[in-house]
Design the sequence.
């Protein structure tokens, strides 16, 4: 999991980052709310950890901003010195998924993160996944469309599964390279663009089959269900 951390105290940020790194979770740390929000809207994170008291705004303000602008429910955990019942209730009511008091206890923090990961991806252990007319068999590594077996490479399968599992979420090219190709160094992201173009054709990802891959200019891609996309695009009437 790639995690974003909002923490203005350098030593505390390093402590949390080390806990996460020990479990294989890369973590980007930000000391201000504005820097955190900017990164959250332009990068792809699996989970976010927020402090409450930061220099330019409150963690609660950051949470509300993130919830109003992101188009998918990224799990959010508060990690803060404020531990009154009123603070906890306020954060949870604003959209936080969990709340922990400082200092971070490594085993508890990781356990709660793992629990949130399971809740956010309940289909992770299923062998057969259904997405409209598409059926993905994770054991056989096959995908059918309207019952017809599609001809895909291993990388096509990995990319398709990742798209379906993150439906509606902005996926940056860098994240796709890291998660699907296992590449973390800086390389030409045209690799992703080439595969996306080919995948649209091979899978029949078009409105007739209920899904589309939308290109988000200078940011990445998002797999959208046409029913949800149409609902968002329809003008409201008084």
Sequence:
């Amino acid at each position: 999991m790639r995690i974003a951390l909002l923490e203005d105290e350098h030593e505390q940020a390093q402590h949390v980052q080390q806990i996460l790194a020990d479990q294989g979770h890369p973590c980007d740390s930000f000391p201000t709310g504005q820097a955190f929000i900017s990164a959250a809207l332009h990068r792809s994170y699996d989970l976010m950890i927020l402090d409450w008291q930061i220099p330019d705004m409150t963690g609660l303000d950051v949470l509300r901003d993130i919830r109003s602008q992101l188009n998918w429910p990224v799990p959010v955990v508060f990690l803060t010195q404020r531990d009154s019942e009123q603070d906890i209730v306020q954060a949870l009511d604003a959209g936080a998924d969990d709340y922990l008091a400082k200092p971070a206890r490594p085993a508890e923090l990781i356990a709660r993160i793992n629990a949130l990961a399971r809740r956010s991806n309940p289909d992770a252990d299923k062998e057969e996944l259904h997405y409209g007319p598409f059926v993905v068999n994770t054991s056989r590594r096959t995908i059918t469309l309207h019952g017809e077996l599609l001809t895909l490479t291993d990388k096509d399968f990995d990319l398709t599964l990742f798209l379906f599992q993150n439906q509606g979420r902005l996926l940056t090219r860098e994240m796709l390279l890291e998660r699907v190709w296992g590449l973390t160094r800086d390389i030409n992201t045209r690799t992703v663009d080439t595969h996306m173009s080919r995948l649209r054709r091979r899978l029949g990802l078009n409105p007739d089959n209920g899904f589309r891959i939308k290109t988000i200019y200078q940011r990445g891609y998002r797999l959208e269900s046409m029913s949800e996309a149409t609902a968002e695009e329809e003008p409201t009437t008084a």
Summary: The chain has two domains: 3-120, 128-233. The longest strand covers residues 211-216. The first helix runs from residue 10 to 22. The two ends are 43 Å apart (CA to CA).
